[in-house]
Amino acid sequence: MKKILASNFKTNHTRASTKGFVEGIDKFVKQEGITNDIFIFPTATSLDCFEISDNISIGVQNAYPVSDGSFTGEIGTAQLDEFGIKTILIGHSERRHILKEPNELIVKKYDFFKSNNYKIIYCIGEPYEVKLEGMESIIEYLFSQLEGIDLTYKNLIVAYEPVWAIGTGKVATVEDINEIHGVLKQKITSPLLYGGSVKTDNIEEILNIDSVDGVLVGSGSWKIENFIEMIKVGAKNVIKR
Ligand code: 13P
After folding, report:
1. For residue 1, what pLDDT is reported?
2. Catalytic site positions
3. Is the CB of 233 under 6 A from ligand 1?
4. Using CB atoms within 10 A of its CB, is residue 214 exposed (0-12), middle (13-18) or buried (19+)?
5. Greater pLDDT, 240 or 236
6. Is any ligand 1 atom within 6 A of the Cβ of residue 199?
7. Distance 16 CA to ligand 1 centre (A)
8. How many structural domains does the chain have?
9. Order of strands across the sheet with 192-195?
10. Does 241 have pLDDT greater than 80?
11. Containing H/E element for 80?
12. What's the gap in Å between 69 CA and the centre of ligand 1?
């Protein structure tokens, strides 16, 4: 199976640097004949109509579950349609924990963007307190984040991103990823990504785990040369199989 490589810019890059990044990745993908699915999630202000390879998708990090209306500060599908955006991240830990997005709204977003046929990368992950309680609690917590989510949706990708591993340089062990992904895979049939401090120096061992269908990368992917390095590893991984 081809490994998926996704870069989440979070609150980084400008319109100008995003354009350079997207065009640079597209050039590399074309030059090397890379066929892996690649996702880039720039800031909403950097969205544009990029002319890029079919296997590269530009997604939005967040949107409100409406077409348009009076929701100050939010964007809906009318604004996303202008750029042909049909991919969204939902349930990211920073939105759940820092921005206090309630589960109710997350489920509402999921249903809305599903009914609009968006590709959804749905993120789940346990905080450190839960990790300390052990595997049973971790699984129970992750399953609770899947409640109310239609797991049969054909345009779904799930991303397991332990909260304590995001932006901290701490990565889950290969054994833990393998075990947790194994349990999740009994419940879901969609591709399953790992995220949390994935870097150029650990991506290979992570992508080598059979139950890892790809990675969702933050800080480690913001420099184009690093994301290119990761795409190379992802492509090598396909050839090896
Ligand atoms: P880092 O790669 O910076 O840990 O972030 C992971 C993440 O949150 C991707 O969505």
Report:
1. 74
2. 92, 161
3. no
4. buried
5. 236
6. no
7. 22
8. 1
9. 56-58, 38-41, 4-8, 214-217, 192-195, 156-160, 119-124, 87-90
10. no
11. helix 77-81
12. 31
> Is 59:121 a contact under the CB 8 Å cutoff?
yes
48/15 Cα distance (integer angstroms): 9
The CATH number covering residue 29 comes to 3.20.20.70
Which pLDDT value is given to residue 45?
A: 98
Atom nearest to 220 CA in ligand 1: 2
Q: pLDDT digits over 169-180, tens only?
A: 898 999 999 999
Quick: pLDDT tens for 139-192. 999 999 999 999 999 999 999 999 999 999 898 999 999 999 999 999 999 999
Q: Which domain holds residue 93?
A: 4-240
Task: Name the nearest CA neighbour of 51 among 68, 75, 27.
Answer: 27
Instruction: Look up tokens 């939010």; give the residue.
Output: 74
167 CB near ligand 1 (under 6 Å): yes
